[in-house]
Design a protein that fits this description.
disordered C terminus, alpha/beta, 193 residues, Pyruvate-ferredoxin Oxidoreductase, domain 3, 39% helix
């Protein structure tokens, strides 16, 4: 049976959820896998939550809809609430540890709940603009559905025009990707597949 990975990413408009999903799908396609990306922009302009659904498989993907994610990523308190319905006993739930007031809100039925300091690391070690690249690294490492090299190639395809103008941004983004992967890596396991 073919491996199918279902990913749900949610956050406030402007946090880069859709960009992360697009890069994941692009990288999977370039790696020869099937990928399906469905954006749900909601009404972010009025304070809604942006959600992206990504499925990646070695074979044809049967349905665009799914009930439970293998990886669920929530980047705001409202995203934590919005994604609860996609969490099941096999789900790895990733959220930013700087989100306040989550007592009792985190899923109790997930296989694994991983708080990561993505916002803090972006601000202190990089720049707030690479927050979504840190999240991408976390998703790539947690899911192991695409390789680090393919993720870098997809970032290059997406941001190459910026890298041409400012070559130092390439290494900056790649280091942010790797740092995100390190945040979800269990002890003794390599960061990327």
């Amino acid at each position: 049976m073919a491996e199918l990975t279902r990913i749900v990413l949610a956050g406030e408009g402007g946090q880069g959820v859709q960009t992360v999903a697009e890069i994941l799908a692009e990288a999977a396609n370039e790696e020869g896998k099937q990928a399906l990306y469905i954006p749900n922009f909601g009404v972010e302009q009025r304070g809604g939550v942006s959600v992206a659904y990504v499925q990646i498989s070695d074979s044809q993907i049967g349905s665009p809809k799914f009930q439970t994610g293998d990886i669920v990523v929530a980047l705001s308190d409202r995203a934590v609430q919005r994604t609860q319905k996609y969490v099941g006993p096999e789900t790895t739930f990733v959220y930013d540890s700087k989100i306040q007031g989550l007592e009792g809100e985190l899923p109790k039925n997930a296989r694994e709940v991983l708080p990561i300091p993505a916002i803090e690391v972006a601000k202190k070690e990089f720049h707030p603009r690479v927050f979504n690249i840190i999240i991408l690294g976390a998703v790539v490492s947690a899911s192991r559905v695409i390789s680090l090299e393919q993720a870098k190639a997809a970032i290059e395809k997406r941001l190459g025009y910026k890298f041409e103008k400012q070559p130092e941004l390439r290494d900056f983004n790649y280091r942010a990707l790797e740092r995100g992967g390190d945040m979800v890596r269990p002890q003794g396991r390599p960061c990327f597949a």
